[in-house]
């Protein structure tokens, strides 16, 4: 390979070429392969960092290699780099993401269970002598609407709400009216919704209008229940968090309301400000069978030439297919396309064998 040819490659193409060479020669020295590809020291370290971040190579120190003692000892040997198959690396990335999500869900579940335990004695005993907490079960929807309407005029400092679903169309105008009144009086208004609500056209418009009025809106992957809190002295939430239509708990007094405020703050910190959320990944629904086959083969470490032979097409056609796949998945590189494809389940099925 000429130096000009090596230098004309983009960063991702250099990384891919280096990775393919390492795959083709198991046990080969990373630096030696990079030198053979005429990569500069900066390019070599950038490729090493990218492959490490993607989980495609791992540093594997040799436990038997002990540094020599004494002044004559030379520099310590560079740890060997173990090459990881693409499907294994992608599965590890997916496992890592799944573990993070499960951890977040588990923390939310523990917080909710703790709060339910705290609420239990109050619900059984009602108003205790000398207590500042008052708890009432309300099953009349008209009463709940009146309480929320009265809250608009009595709240002094803040209103915090979370909603698991969309706002009913007939309630949107009323909600915007309450927002105007509260914000005009200097009340801080926070509202949290699930991510899927942000995909409903009517809700997109409604959330934009709330933001324009000065309401702080966030979207969260986990919204445990419907809830309205005000001034740390008022709380309205369902008796059954899994059934939004169940009777409501109406609590007054800081003793219990602060506990629910702690849950709200936890969810709020994990949520994303509306309008700043990451764009959803393309689903790959527009991929043809030929494009999917090419994607699976490349994810298995098969080189473009072998892909072309397997599909019975030219190298130019393979390049076009991969370009179309990257565009469909909104990926800037082949590696990113592979990661997104794994997350979307596009690599499911029998893997292709890497044959010379």
UniProtKB/TrEMBL annotation:
What range(s) does the HTH luxR-type domain occupy?
280-345
Q: Which domain of life is it from?
A: Bacteria
Q: Which InterPro entries does this UniProt record tie to the protein?
A: Sig_transdc_resp-reg_C-effctor (IPR016032), TrmB-like (IPR051797), Tscrpt_reg_LuxR_C (IPR000792), WH-like_DNA-bd_sf (IPR036388)
Entry-linked Gene3D superfamilies: Winged helix-like DNA-binding domain superfamily/Winged helix DNA-binding domain
Name of the protein in its database record: Helix-turn-helix domain-containing protein
The organism named in the record is Streptomyces roseoviridis
